[in-house]
Each structure stands twice: as C-alpha cells, then as structure tokens.
TrEMBL record:
Biological processes, Gene Ontology terms: proteolysis
InterPro entries: Peptidase_S8/S53_dom, Peptidase_S8/S53_dom_sf, Peptidase_S8_Asp-AS, Peptidase_S8_His-AS, Peptidase_S8_subtilisin-like, Peptidase_S8_subtilisin-rel
GO molecular function per UniProt: serine-type endopeptidase activity
Record-stated family: Belongs to the peptidase S8 family.
Tree of life domain: Bacteria
UniProt domain Peptidase S8/S53: residue ranges: 41-127
SUPFAM superfamilies hit by this protein: Subtilisin-like
Entry-linked PANTHER family: CEREVISIN-RELATED, PEPTIDASE S8
Keyword field: Calcium, Hydrolase, Protease, Secreted, Serine protease
Name of the protein this chain belongs to: Peptidase S8/S53 domain-containing protein
GO cellular component terms, semicolon-separated: extracellular region
Cofactor(s), names only, from the UniProt record: Ca(2+)
Origin organism lineage: Bacteria, Bacillati, Bacillota, Bacilli, Bacillales
Protein species of origin: Bacillus safensis
Compartments it resides in: Secreted
Amino acid sequence: MKQKEVTFIEEDQKAKTSAQTIPYGVKSIKAQKVHKHGYAGQNVKVAVLDSGIDGKHEDLHVTGGVSFVPAESDPFVDPHKHGTHVAGTIAALDNKVGVVGVAPKASIYAVKVADENGDGYYSWIIKRD
C-alpha cells in the first residue's frame, strides 16, 4: 500500500554490535598495519591542551596532567568532553572495548586550558605560577 507521506522505505537488516570500533581516520591512515609491526606510540608523550580528560574513561590511560583553569583544578574531569574525545582519537587503548586510537601505547597528559563550556583565556596559561 502506497502512502504519500512515505518517501522511502529501507529493507530491514540485521545489526551487529562490535566490541571495538576502528574509526575511519585510523583506517584511512592504515595505523593498524604499523601497529602490527610494533609501532603503536611506545615512548611517545602527547599533551592534550583542551577541556581536560576523563581520568576514569575505560579506553584511556592518562599518565599525568595539570589544570590552568582557575575554578577547575582537576585536569581529569572533563564536563565538556572535547578533550576526552581528542585524547581517544590520539591514544584510545587497543583493549577490545570502544574505539582504538592512532597511537594506543602513547602516554597522554591532560592539560586543562578550557572550562566546562569549552572556553579559556591565554592569560590563564601565561600567568600560571
């Protein structure tokens, strides 16, 4: 039966969950190939200057951090979630959960320079004691 309100019907398909997703960017640069040869970010340190990094995220191992945001002293709390996303793109663990990053064995450091709204000031960093 045809209805004028319906412009398209897609055939029902089976959906399958996956334990870990390989993001498009990781696939497109063929990071998995270099991971298999032992190049996965070992001995690489990356500072993520953003809104902090969720220190309890199951896909991340955050090595250290500092906050430059006056009212938010904990770099391991990220209410804005942008810093956590960036850290995951860089170094989400290859742990069969969630996603995998470009360099899953890199050391990640949270440098909180943006508040819960994603805003920050250069003066916060410049004036740091």
